Every structure is written in structure tokens, then in C-alpha cells.
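Review form for a predicted model. The reviewer records the input and the model, then writes brief findings.
Reviewer: anonymous (R2)
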Amino acid sequence: MFPKESRDFCGMLLPRAHLTSCAISIPAFGCSGGRLAQLPQARRFAALLAACVFISISPFARSAAAQAPPATPPAKLGPLDPEAGKALFQQNCVNCHGLDATGEEGPNLHGVPAALGDAAVANIIRRGIPGTGMPSSYTITEQDAANIVAWIRSLDSAPAPPAVGDAKKGEAVYASAGCSACHMIEGVGGNIGPDLSRIGVQRGPANLKARLLDPAANLPKPVGGFVSGGGVTQYLMFRAVEKDGRSTEGMRVGEDSFSIILKDAQGKLHGFRKPDLLKLEKEPGKSFMPSFKDTLSAAQMDDLIAYLSTLKAAQ
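Model under review:
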């Protein structure tokens, strides 16, 4: 560690904050008589700073690379076994993609191998997609991944289930139910709830129905972004009570050990320091989104799900 005061490196005074993560031995750069000493002061500063940044980020790069299997030459695959792939899918993938790969927390996978190619999908299965909820896996071999893809591809040749609901009528139900007050579709609507522009590829019909009937029962997990900490439940309701008795209810949109940010029903953000609060309570089972169990008929529910299933905007 460097002392709190600035240090004199090669005749330059640099604040400690610039180099707290740098473990360079400055003499190694030839500060006394070497090439660095001959550079103008600004160039010496840039060289030192670049070296410090490189060293400080190297452990993070190694850590990120360690999350996925190391790159190796393509393995020679044996005969594809879709049934083995189905068993592996059920062991590893159903929680996010559903038993029939039509989507739950994760997207519907029907048609994905045909669109992306078998090799690309197998690579995603093993290496994941950084910044999303799709993890990498050391335990799935290249043969395993190929078998899973073979099973997913076999679903495309199965007869499609008969359509349920009328998407055109469902669009009218969406409008009359006031969904656009909280949800956005391709830039139009509110921002209290999640963007629905790609909900048709992100959720299957069964999952959509479950969320319309009981919105607070299966709150989604993030795929990276604002909420601190991986796997933290999104849209979870909290009630914050300040020491003067004022109370604020809202969805958590950000939290760390010392603070929390809530969004109220009007979309306004409220930030609190936890030590300043009298009380901070989770409110499981509550949601700003109402249940449509008693407000939509079975036919209207099917129509609304049919409409939501058509929303597949390009990324």
C-alpha cells in the first residue's frame, strides 16, 4: 500500500488514489537514467497510468475467463442421441426454459437451432451468454451439448399445438385493461413494469398465464444491471418507514448493504440510507400489477396471452 500523501515517482507528484491498485516497482521502469526518464513528464505519467490500469484489471480478466470452459479444439463427436439430450435438458434447463422448451424464466427455444445453427447453440449451452441469466457450465461436455441441441431441433418437427386465443382481440384486451400504463412495447407505454417488446420469446404461454393470474407469485430475476447482487428478485415490494414516521411503499430497483432505492406506483424513485430508517420491511405477495383472475374471462385471458406471444421485437 502507498502512504496517504502523494508519492514522488520520477519527479512527478501523483495522488495515492491513482495508484492504490498498482503493484509496480518503479525502478523497473528505469526512473533513474532509463528510457522512461527521458520522456516528457506527460508521457511518463501516461505510461505509468496505463501500466497500473493493466495490472489492476488483469485479475478481473482472468476471473471472467475462468467462468466458462477453456477454449479447446472442436471434439470429434459421436452419434447424436436426442433422448440423452432430453434427459440432460430436464436435469439442467427446465427451470428456465420449461419442460417442453417453450419458455419459463428463459426464452422459448423452439426454432433456435434452425435460426442460429447447431454449433452456435451448443456453444451457448457450454459457455453461456455474458451479462444475461444464461450461465456457463463445466459439467456439460461438447457431446452433451450436441445431444441437447439435437433434442431441441427434434421439437421443430413435432406438430405445433393448436392456437389458443385470438391475438387481434388480445391486443384490444391489452388496451382496455390499461396494461400500457405500466408496460412498454417498442417505446410506447409506461416504465413501472418490465418492457414487453420481446415477451413472446422470453416467456412461454403457461408462464404468461401464471403471471397474469398471480403476478407476485413468481417475480423475475435480473440478467444483470441495476439491482446489486446476482440473482436478486426484481419487482419485490418494500415498505420504508423513516424516523419521522413517513412511509414509502415501492418496488426495489437498487440495493446494497447501506442503502436501498424504491420506485413507487407513479414511477418516482426514492433513495434511503438504511441506518436512517426506523423500519424496512419486505412485502412478499404484493405487486403493483393486479391479478386478472377475476377481471378477465377465460376467453379474454387466452386472447391476451395470444397477443403477448406475438411480441418478438428484434434485439
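Findings: The first helix runs from residue 41 to 65.
Further findings: The CA atoms of residues 166 and 260 lie 42 Å apart.
Recommendation: see findings above.
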